[in-house]
Structures are given as C-alpha cells and as structure tokens.
From TrEMBL:
Gene name in the database record: Ripor1
Name of the molecule in the record: RIPR1 regulator
Biased composition regions of type Polar residues, renumbered to the chain: 1-17
Family as reported in the entry's similarity comment: Belongs to the RIPOR family.
Domain FAM65 N-terminal: start-end pairs: 7-329
Length: 340
C-alpha cells in the first residue's frame, strides 16, 4: 500500500527511549538470487534522497553564511564563533554525504557490469543447451559459460548485499492510531511490525479524550532492498479472544527523504483505521555516524540564540566579557606600577 500523509489527533506517552532491536547482524548474509529490477528502483530512490539531503544542508549552509556576514559588525565574538562552528560542521557533513553518494555510485556501476556479464553468460548457456550435442570443444564451452554465469551471479549477490549495508537507518516513531468513530476508550491494540528479520511489537490503550498510551514509541530499522514492511494490528479483547484488524505490507523505498515525514497506513480495506508513523531517514547507520548528523536541528538552536542576543544592544558586554575587561585593566595597573 502506498503511504500518504496523515496526522491523527492523539498524544504519546512521554519518557520513552529509542529501541535498537536488530535480530540480524549489521551485514546480513548475501541473497542467493539477485534482484536487479528491485535494486534499480531502490537505487533511484536512494539517489533522490541523497540529492535532497545535499540540497537541504546546502541551503542551511548558505543561510548561516548570510547570518555571519550580517552579524560581523554588531554581534559578539561568542555568537560568531558558534555560527562558524556550525558552518564548518555542515561543510564536513556535506563532504561526507558526497563521498557516500560516490561510493554508492561505484557499487551500482560495478553491479551493472556484473549484470551485463551475467546476461551474456546466460545467453551463451542457452545457445549451447538448445543446440544439438556437439564436439568436446562445445561441451567445454558450455561448462565454461555455466561457470561464468554462476560466478557473475555470486558477484551480483555480494554487491547487492554491500549496497544494502549503505542504506543508512529508518527511525520510526509511533504517533498513534486514528479510527474516527472506531476507537473507543478502553480499547487495547497490539501492533506487530516485521521488516526482514527485524521485529517490533508494541501495545497501546485508548484512554478518555482520545488519548493513547503505548509501551514503546520508537524503533530503528535497517533498510532492506527486497523486503517490504509488514504491519499487523490486533485488537485485544480478552485473554483468548484477539481480533486481527488488518495485516498490510508497505513500500519502503519512498522513505528515503531528507526531512522527517509523517505517513499513514490504511490498516483495513475500508480505511476506517489508520496507523500514523513519523519516519526519519539517516543516510549513515549507527556504526558510521558523522559528527554533524543533525546539523539542521542544531541550526534552529543557533537561530533561537541569535534572537536572544538581539534583545540587548550589540555593544553591551556580557558578564564574561566584563570580567575579562576587569582582568585586563588590573594587569595594566600592575604593569604601570612595576609590579608585573
């Protein structure tokens, strides 16, 4: 099912932490059969997401550079220092993104080369197999073509697995269920998500005033090439009477986006019950975190600080600056009286 934006009016339980429940290793075993068509789709979506990531941070870099130029004459050195640190952090992150994108391009190019070689070996095997049994040289050529086909297939599977390990992370936040007149106070639901070997099970309760309380709110999934996100919602009525509301599969290649996005999933066929999730894609996984992974969020903090500084005249020294000026003045007096 396609994911469409939807924002339900529910509240979340506070104080939860992000869970990392990977039941598989960072690098899963390579597949036995390559999926070139699916890999093409994921690669195009991944490149689109990386391009958007670069554009967002490039705009933030230009915005901060403009603030520095406008603030050099009437701002304190401490604030300019913070802006300069933020600019350098974004520049490092942009270089990291560009290197990451070039690495993905190299892997995909190598994959395409192995795919063309595999197609050629497949055609040779087909030609030798359909013909009449010939000489010894023909049989040896058939064996060589079959060997090449197997080798190119294994190479494609290895490259596909390596490219999958470069997809980053999906940070999924539970926002709640929306069912209009379907949700009632006292109802309890269980949500089970399966993404390859990764699992996430959480339970929630509908309280008065349409509030919802869930025992878990966040999960980190490693993106996969060929797998879809399976979501199963069950209404818990009694110990032995559970009603499956819906069981759907969702496309994940559309989640490669630069900014967090709220998506809604129709749980049942009529669409009267929806599951709302907030998905944030990080192009780097937990083992390859850059130093400025959240530069855009940090920039908003700098902007708030900028407005705070502007509430007072630019030439008014702060307490720290006053202490510095006092120490300089005392040092000058000591030097003047020969006590330095």
């Amino acid at each position: 099912r396609n994911l469409s934006p939807f924002t339900p009016t529910v509240s979340r339980k506070t104080g939860s932490r992000v869970s990392r429940m990977f039941s598989m290793s960072h690098k899963s075993p390579p597949p036995k059969v390559p999926q070139p068509n699916r890999l093409d789709e994921v690669y195009e979506a991944l490149k689109k997401g990386l391009t958007a990531y670069l554009e967002v941070h490039q705009l933030e870099l230009e915005k901060l550079s403009t603030q520095i130029r406008e603030s050099k004459r009437n701002s304190r050195l401490g604030f300019l220092y913070d802006l300069d640190k933020q600019v350098k952090s974004i520049e490092r992150f942009l270089r990291r993104l560009e290197f990451h994108a070039s690495k993905i391009d190299e892997l995909y190019e190598a994959y395409c080369i192995q795919r063309r070689l595999r197609d050629g070996a497949h055609n040779m095997v087909k030609a030798y197999s359909t013909g009449s049994p010939g000489s010894r040289e023909a049989r040896e050529s058939l064996a060589e073509a079959s060997k090449g086909y197997k080798e190119y297939t294994e190479n494609m599977c290895l490259l596909e697995n390596e490219l999958e390990s470069q997809l980053g992370e999906f940070h999924i936040r539970m926002k709640g269920l929306a069912g209009f007149a379907r949700l009632c106070a006292g109802d309890q639901y269980e949500i089970f998500m399966k993404y390859g070997r990764q699992r996430w099970k959480l339970r929630g309760r509908i309280e008065v005033n349409s509030k919802q309380v869930w025992d878990s709110e966040e999960m980190v999934f490693l993106p996969l090439v060929t797998e879809f996100l399976s979501i199963k919602v069950t209404e818990l009525k009694s110990l032995a009477n559970h009603v499956v509301v819906g069981n759907v599969s969702c496309e994940t290649k559309d989640l490669f986006a630069a900014l967090p996005q709220v998506v809604a999933v129709d749980i049942n066929d009529l669409g009267t019950l929806k599951l709302s999730l907030e998905v944030t894609w990080n192009p780097f996984d937990k083992d390859d975190q850059p130093s400025a992974a959240s530069t855009v969020n940090k920039a908003s903090t700098v902007n708030k600080r900028f407005s705070t500084y502007n509430q007072s005249p630019p030439d008014t020294p702060s307490l720290r600056e006053q202490a510095f000026y006092v120490s300089v003045h005392q040092a000058g007096l000591l030097r003047r009286h020969g006590q330095w």
